């Protein structure tokens, strides 16, 4: 009988554990994209500074002026993307914490046979799922902004 309880407990704790892993993978992907975007911001800022230095020596031509405007647009858009990255990382991280909490609540409920932990586990798991959704929404918005940046660069 005790073996069945142990197996049941492990099975119940598995769903939050899988979501912890899933959110960890999502965090890794978003973090990698964030690092790349921040690197791109630094490169664009350096290019912008170079244009400004050149403009002190002689006026920029029309193509250089257009590139400078394009740089400003890209920097503004990248700054917005970084905000969405931050929001996505925040929601995924909170989701991980909630899934850990749900898993612990399941364990405490089984060990202590205290019914309130079942409700705590369910609420924590559902809140974690909502946070995962929030992170995914912000990640999707960021993808849309990335598309806008690249199309602007291609066509301007």
Descriptors for this entry?
mainly alpha, rod-shaped, 156 residues
Please provide a written account of the structure:
By secondary structure, the protein is mainly α. It has one domain (2-155). It has three helices and no strands. The longest helix has 56 residues, at 2-57. It is rod-shaped.
Distance N to C terminus = 71 Å
Strand content: under 5%
Largest sheet: none
The global form is rod-shaped
The ordered H/E elements are HHH
> Low-confidence stretches at least 5 residues in length (pLDDT < 50)?
none
Oligomeric state of the chains in view = single chain
State the helicity in percent bands: over 70%
What gyration radius follows from the Cα positions, in whole Å? 24 Å
Count, helices:
3
> What is the residue-averaged pLDDT?
88
Number of domains: 1
Outline the fold blueprint.
Layout: H1 2-57, H2 62-112, H3 116-155
Helix pairs in contact: 1-2, 1-3, 2-3
Kindly summarize this structure in a few lines:
With 156 residues, the chain is an all-alpha fold. The protein has helices at 2-57, 62-112, 116-155. It is rod-shaped and about 80 Å long.
